[in-house]
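Anyone able to model this chain together with 1,3-dihydroxyacetonephosphate?
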Amino acid sequence: MIIAANFKTNHTRKSTKAYLGKLNSFVAELKSDDTVLVFPPSSALDNFDLTDNISVGVQNAYPTEKGSFTGEIGLEQIEEFGLTTILIGHSERRHVLGESQDEVAKKYDFYKSCGFQIVYCIGEPKEVREEGIESVIAYNFSQLEGIDISYENLIVAYEPVWAIGTGLTASNEQIEETLALLNEKIKAPLLYGGSVKVANTKEILDIPNCEGILVGTASWDVDAFCEMVEISKKQ
Ligand code: 13P
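re: yes, here you go
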């Protein structure tokens, strides 16, 4: 299983360090062999001494080694900390910050060429979900345009936009049906994200074709995230 925490615009440099220290001891003691990924804000990136199955990744980066892209970070700033994991295509970047599929695909190509592990996010908005499963799948597949889905270091996170940060989790039936159809095309591990919390972690991880979770809000509390890692180990 893959258990991932997306901090979004939460946590400071100091609190990220404390969080990772606690998570690291917990995972080492639990002897979990799941893959644990943590995406702190870029201001908190650092060299962290972590057990092998925990990796820190970046939430976003510009497709460049370095250059004149005010407000962005590139490969040089990531490599300083030896990090090789990136989140690309998150719905907040697509729908709040207006990143186009073309821009997303450029980032994907660049960080793929650098050999990064890529957690690539797809997911439909509410009005598409309301049109039915065919529209849902067509929309999600359209977010794969220009993306080499045979890339060996790819993980795909299915995160329905209407379930993110809303407390509205997709039903287990909706997740199961969607992941089964995505799995016909995508051979990479599939994660589910969208209002995952301690209370629904087990049932979501039990869904066929679900190889993990990408957690926002509930992951910001280290104790809750540790509980999720523990539930996953018991699967
Ligand atoms: P929430 O868990 O807050 O719904 O966020 C999910 C998400 O966007 C993870 O990337």
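The two ends are 9 Å apart (CA to CA).
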